[in-house]
Structure formats: C-alpha cells, structure tokens
TrEMBL record:
<feature type="binding site">
    <location>
        <position position="445"/>
    </location>
    <ligand>
        <name>L-aspartate</name>
    </ligand>
</feature>
<dbReference type="InterPro" id="IPR029351">
    <property type="entry name" value="GAD_dom"/>
</dbReference>
<feature type="binding site">
    <location>
        <position position="479"/>
    </location>
    <ligand>
        <name>ATP</name>
    </ligand>
</feature>
<dbReference type="InterPro" id="IPR006195">
    <property type="entry name" value="aa-tRNA-synth_II"/>
</dbReference>
<dbReference type="Pfam" id="PF01336">
    <property type="entry name" value="tRNA_anti-codon"/>
</dbReference>
<dbReference type="Pfam" id="PF02938">
    <property type="entry name" value="GAD"/>
</dbReference>
<keyword id="KW-0436">Ligase</keyword>
<dbReference type="InterPro" id="IPR002312">
    <property type="entry name" value="Asp/Asn-tRNA-synth_IIb"/>
</dbReference>
<dbReference type="Pfam" id="PF00152">
    <property type="entry name" value="tRNA-synt_2"/>
</dbReference>
<feature type="binding site">
    <location>
        <begin position="531"/>
        <end position="534"/>
    </location>
    <ligand>
        <name>ATP</name>
    </ligand>
</feature>
<dbReference type="InterPro" id="IPR047090">
    <property type="entry name" value="AspRS_core"/>
</dbReference>
<keyword id="KW-0648">Protein biosynthesis</keyword>
<dbReference type="InterPro" id="IPR012340">
    <property type="entry name" value="NA-bd_OB-fold"/>
</dbReference>
<dbReference type="InterPro" id="IPR045864">
    <property type="entry name" value="aa-tRNA-synth_II/BPL/LPL"/>
</dbReference>
<feature type="binding site">
    <location>
        <position position="220"/>
    </location>
    <ligand>
        <name>L-aspartate</name>
    </ligand>
</feature>
<protein>
    <recommendedName>
        <fullName>Aspartate--tRNA ligase</fullName>
        <ecNumber>6.1.1.12</ecNumber>
    </recommendedName>
</protein>
<feature type="binding site">
    <location>
        <begin position="220"/>
        <end position="222"/>
    </location>
    <ligand>
        <name>ATP</name>
    </ligand>
</feature>
Length: 584
C-alpha cells in the first residue's frame, strides 16, 4: 500500500493516528536539529517533521538529503503543529516521520513548481509534465474535466447519443486548410483530418439517430492567430426534426446549466440579436455586452459642414467612453496613435470632450459648433464627463476599428469582469461572405447551411443579401459556438455548391456521398458545435485556451515537449510513396 491518505486529507481529527503518505518533495527546510519537508500530491501539501529528539540520526540525514521533486513514501504519526498555517487545509497538523522510502529521485527541475513559478512559457511547455504538477495548471485541467462531465450529464439527460466519428476522412470545408495524412495502402492518396464531424453528424441524422453529440477533436491548419490551436475540442451536436428555435432552446439550457453547476450563476434567458444589429451597434458579430458603449452613427448630423473627411465617408460612427473627458492632451494623443496602429488601421480619430459644465470641446471645433456637438452627444447618449471618439471611412472597416477601440477602452476601464457572464445569441447571419481578395463568395458558416425560407432565388441576384438559418452563441465577447439548420435536399445542396464555385463534377467528387444520402429520406435537421476549450477558459474566468489544454501547441503549431512536427526517415517516406521537394 503506497498511501493511507492523500497529502491534502489530514486534519486535527487524525491526530494520534499512524499514516502512510506518498508524493513529491515540494520543499525542505533544515534548521539543524529539526528538518521539515513539504510533501505534495494532487490533493494538497502536508508538512512532515523530523527532529533530533524523536527521529533516528540516519532518518534525519536521509531527509536532509532529499532533493526537490523526489518521490517519497513516508510512514509516521499525525501530530498537532506548533505553529499553525491557516492558509492550507492541512495547516493544523504535521506528520512525525518514522519511516522514509525514496521511490524515485529527481533531477533539479528547470523551474520552481510553485503556484507562482519562475519558469517562462517556453520552458514550462518543454517540461509540461512538470508544469502540470503546479496547482494552477492542475486546477484548470480538473475544471475542464468537471465541465465535460456536466456537458455529458446534461446532454445524455436530454436523450443525446454520444457517437464517435472517424478522424481519417475526406475534406470537410469549414474555412481552413486541411491537415492531410498519406495512405500507405492507397498509393498517392491522402486522408484529411476533420475540421469538424459536420458531414458525418448529418449522415447520423439520415441514419435516424435523432440526437447526436460528441466531445471531439477537430483539426484546422490555419495561421495561429493569438490563442488558436491547430487541434481543438468541440462539443458537437446534431438533431433531427428541429427548427432553429428548438436548437437554441436546448443549447441555451445547456449553457445555463453549466453556468449554474460550474459557476453558481443563474441567468434567465439569453438576449437575441441579429447579425446586422450586432454589426451596427458593436461593429462585431461577437459583441461583449457586459458594458454599454454602443455605437452612435453620426452621418446625418455631421455631413452638412465643410469637414471633408466626414463628408466623403461612407460611415461616421462613434462611442462615448465614460469618464474619459478628463484625459490629458498627452493621453488623448496616445489614444489617437493607438487607433492609427496597423493592427487597428484607422486614419485618425476625432474626439469630443463632454465637459462637466455641459459644454463641448472637440478637435473639429472649426467645423462644428456647440449645437452640432450637442446633437452628437444626444445620438451617442454621452453624458458630461464622457469622451466621444469618432471614426469614419468605409463602413465595414470603420466598424471593425471602432469595435477594437471599444474593447480596448472597456479593458482599460475594467469593464470586462471575468466573473460576470453575458451570453447572447447572434442570429440571421449572411449565408455568403465576399472574399475581398478573390472576389468570390464563400459560405460564411459552411456549405451545408440552409438559406432562410424563400431566399434561395436571391442567390442569383444579390448573393450577399441572402440570410442563413445560422446562429452563434456569444459569451463575454467570444464566440462560444455556432451552428445552423442544414440543407436536407439534394437540389438545394447542389445549388449551394454551384454558387460556391463548384462544378457539378467537383461537387460530386467531394460530396457525392452526402448528396446521395439526401436521396434516401433525409429528415430536416440542424445542429451546432461549441468550442470546448474556449468555453472552459471563459467559465474559468480566463481567456487563454492554452491554459486549459494539457499539452498545447505553441504559436508555430509546435509541441516543443515532444518536438513535433518532425521529419520522418527515408524508409517511411518510401513506404508512403512520398518524395520531398522543399522549396527554399
Ligand atoms: N461544424 C460546425 C463548426 O465547426 C458547427 C455546426 O454547424 O454544427 O463550426
């Protein structure tokens, strides 16, 4: 028996009992006549004590030589601690050691295994197994496990069946590049790793399974913008004989259930907002609605004066930043420079200080008088003390820029509180999105998403105006998940592929299996997927998904611990019928 108790278990009620503990040496303090050793495991830390009066010389010597992270087993008596430590649950007791076995020695770890470590990110990732010994990382993984358990509990309670779908498949277009896997047995052919189980879950509906879910890895070979992972986990779901409303209900309830079970937060019902409204009010299809600062459009109240910048702009739009009228000139200049950074990309910013006495002071006083500025304030709902920040230009770009400023100001003002949860549904997404570079439309969600009833014809005349039966769940400014009601008949699916630029032959070659299946009684169906990593991070009050993944990859998609990706040897290449031709 390695242990009778865990290192986090012993309390005053155990005083007088003999116990066996196993764990890692966290710290040793040697006062000469007495040695204290902290022993740690997943459950906590217990202080061990050895001293000249009560411990043999050899044992004391052995304890003295214990290194950090040695794995030890001890036997001893639980005694009351002389100086108690109120900060840890085991702080009232210690264990007087009578036997000590070293189960395994350890090299000195490259960083300290403490809550606050001296190890930088790269080092911690290289030795992730040591990082995982740290409490904050363990807590995150335990938290993730709790969330996934609750998800399974809820969904199986609702009658969902967990089904595994294959990883070695053919491409599923979800907007990213595929990771591919060469097939040894089928010369010159490749599998693609799923960007999501999309087509399979739809086939499960054709198969009559009715309610499917899976907690599943998805793979997307995309540029790893901050906080993305090439492999990530989805809570993937699909339901048959449902309308959008049915799906929103089930997954709103799932989210409410999680917020309650995991965070103790109760939320009545989630607001809904159309995509168009989200874009015009927040410049963003995943608005953070924990705070106001809604956009005010100023075109009608600005474009009648001599100010050419506004007159020529498609959109003049602003936010009122609470309390920022007190910014100094220097701070305001810095803010203007902030929006001009390439990451934001504005050409400049006009601002209006709403003074406490009701007067206004702006950077465009030459063109606009107090009455004009009062109108701006009225549109924006700005109060005395607020700073109105105005951007102008191309509508889409300007909205995106102002959204970045809105988020930045909210962060600076401490309005993005991690323990406050503001979910909402964004609905009625456009079906198609114009790729500015190629001039082609592609599916905003994916090619299996159905257009809103009666809008199919619009595809020929005004493709950008077609709205989809597609929805996203947004939480605290993050897209937690999204889905759609699917196309379930062959003709509509073929029309959709045509509009996405597939020839009938290409569509058949890539998705013939799905269109075939649609000919055998495909039920109306729809679903959605939640990004588990992000959901867990947000429920955990943090925003970095990497912190909730046991073995994450870095920004170049590398696992620095196992050193992957890596080359393979010539023999393997030959077996796979592959030749490398790496361009410099
Ligand atoms: N497969 C979709 C995605 O990964 C989700 C869905 O439409 O159900 O975003």
């Amino acid at each position: 028996m390695y242990r009778s108790h865990s290192c986090g278990e012993l309390r005053e009620s155990h005083i007088g009992t003999t116990v066996t503990l196993s764990g890692w040496v966290s710290k040793t303090r040697d006062k000469g006549f007495v040695v204290w050793v902290d022993i740690r495991d997943r459950y906590g830390i217990t202080q061990l004590v050895l001293d000249e009066d009560r411990t043999s010389k050899e044992l004391l010597e052995q304890a003295r030589n214990l290194g950090r992270e040695f794995v030890i087993q001890i036997k001893g008596e639980v005694i009351e601690r002389a100086s108690k430590n109120a900060n840890i649950p085991t702080g009232n007791i210690e264990v007087l050691v009578s036997e000590l076995t070293i189960l395994n020695e350890s090299k000195t770890p490259p960083f300290t295994i403490e809550n606050e470590t001296d190890g930088g990110e790269d080092l911690r990732m290289k030795y992730r197994y040591l990082d995982i010994r740290r409490k904050p990382v363990q807590n995150n993984l335990i938290f993730r496990s709790k969330v996934t358990m609750e998800v399974r509990k809820f969904l199986s309670g609702e009658g969902f069946i967990e089904v595994e779908t294959p990883y070695l498949i053919k491409s599923t277009p979800e907007g990213a590049r595929d990771f591919v896997v060469p097939s040894r047995m089928n010369e010159g052919q490749f599998y693609a790793l799923p960007q999501s189980p999309q087509t399979f879950k739809q086939l499960l509906m054709v198969g009559g399974l009715d309610k499917y879910f899976q907690i599943v890895k998805c793979f997307r070979d995309e540029d790893l913008r901050a906080d993305r992972q090439p492999e990530f986990t989805q809570i993937d779901c699909e339901m048959a004989f449902v309308e959008q409303e049915d799906i929103l209900n089930v997954f709103e309830n799932l989210t409410k259930y999680l917020l309650k079970e995991v965070n103790g937060v109760e939320i009545d019902s989630f607001p809904r907002m159309t995509y168009d409204e989200a874009m015009s009010k927040y410049g963003n299809d995943k608005p953070d609605i924990r705070f106001g600062m809604e956009f005010g459009e100023l075109n009608t109240v600005t474009q009648h004066k001599e100010f050419g910048v506004f007159n020529s702009a498609e959109l003049v739009v602003c936010i009122a930043v609470p309390g920022a009228a007190s910014y100094t000139r220097k701070e305001l200049d810095a803010l203007v420079n902030w929006v001009k950074r390439p990451q934001v990309g504005a050409n400049g910013m006009v601002y209006v200080k709403c003074n406490e006495d009701g007067s206004f002071k702006s950077t465009v006083d030459k063109f606009y008088d107090q009455d004009d500025l009062a109108k701006w304030a009225a549109v924006t709902g700005a109060k005395p003390g607020d700073l109105i920040c105005v951007l102008s230009g191309d509508a889409n770009k300007t909205r995106t820029q102002l959204s970045a400023l809105r988020m930045e100001m909210a962060t600076r003002l401490g309005l993005r509180k991690p323990n406050e949860f503001a979910p909402l549904w964004v609905v009625d997404f456009p079906l198609l999105e114009l790729d500015e570079e190629t001039g082609h439309y592609h599916a905003m969600h994916h090619p299996f998403t159905s257009p809103k009833p009666g809008q199919l014809e619009l595809l020929d005349t005004d493709p950008g105006a077609v709205r989809a039966n597609a929805y996203d769940l947004v939480l605290n400014g993050n897209e937690i998940g999204g889905g759609s009601i699917r196309i379930h008949d062959k003709e509509t699916q073929a029309t959709m592929f045509k509009h996405l630029g597939f020839t009938p032959e290409e569509a058949k070659a890539q998705f013939g299996f799905l269109m075939d299946a649609f000919q055998y009684g495909a039920p109306p169906h729809g679903g959605l997927a939640f990004g588990l990593d992000r959901l867990v991070a947000i429920l955990g009050g943090q925003e970095t998904i990497r912190d909730f993944i046991a073995f994450p990859k870095n920004n170049s998609g590398r696992d620095v611990m196992i050193d992957a990706p890596a080359t393979i040897d010539d023999e393997q290449l030959k077996e796979l019928n592959l030749k490398l031709d790496i361009q410099e």
